[in-house]
Amino acid sequence: MRVTDDRYCRDRLRFDLALRLIGHEARTHTIRAWTGLTEDRVRKLYRTYIAEHPGERIARRRGKSPQRCSYFLRPPRVQQEAAVLAGLFCMVGIVGRDARLDPRALSVAHCELLCLAYETYLALVSAPSISFEHAAFLVIALGRGDELVLRHCTGCGALTIDDRYSLRATACSVCAAAPCPPGRGARPGQLAGARALPAAARGSPAPARLGRVGEG
């Protein structure tokens, strides 16, 4: 068999990608889904190239992969980092309005782009909160578009992740946490809620301001 054979090249790419995913502590079934390798082959790769060589220890995660979209919507730090990841996914071309990854058509090329985006995220964010497993699930969730969508913050225009069925105006974590400047009205995240109030409630007089402690 020649080294230049297409089959050899495809197998080599899958093995290299599997080792890359092992380095990111991806679970065995995640590696299987993205590379097409069997569980036995993944375990042999780990034993041969990782476990039997001295150096930094890489953990082998067990159990189910993340499946809850709500993880990316709270707390604010995770929401902000998820927006950074989503922006990187758009830059490499695996997520976007016109480029959505079909969960049924995972490929080695898609996963290489996912790894590139995740490794860039690790380089940009200090003390990152999002694991590779969560990043892989975020790609799938945004590709489905049934729970999470990409929108622009109505306050600053930044790309952010939002609940598809949210009735509130889209606000990034920074704008949602910022105090409302005097005379500027409600924050972006409060606008939709204000519009939903009955007319009588919106027109009712404001309650009297409470005095400071110690005022007569």
Task: List the keywords.
mainly alpha, two-stranded antiparallel ribbon, single chain
Give average pLDDT, whole number.
Answer: 79
Count of DSSP H/I helices: 9
What are the segments in which pLDDT stays under 50 over at least 5 consecutive residues?
182-216
Q: What is the rounded distance between the termini? A: 93 Å
Report on this structure.
The protein has 216 residues and is mainly alpha-helical. It has nine helices and two strands. It has helices at residues 6-23, 28-35, 39-51, 76-92, 108-124, 132-144, 173-177, 188-195, 199-203, and strands at 148-152, 159-163. A hairpin with a 6-residue loop joins β1 (148-152) and β2 (159-163). The longest helix is centred in the first third of the chain and has 18 residues, at 6-23. The protein starts with 5 loop residues before the first helix and ends in a 13-residue tail after the last helix.
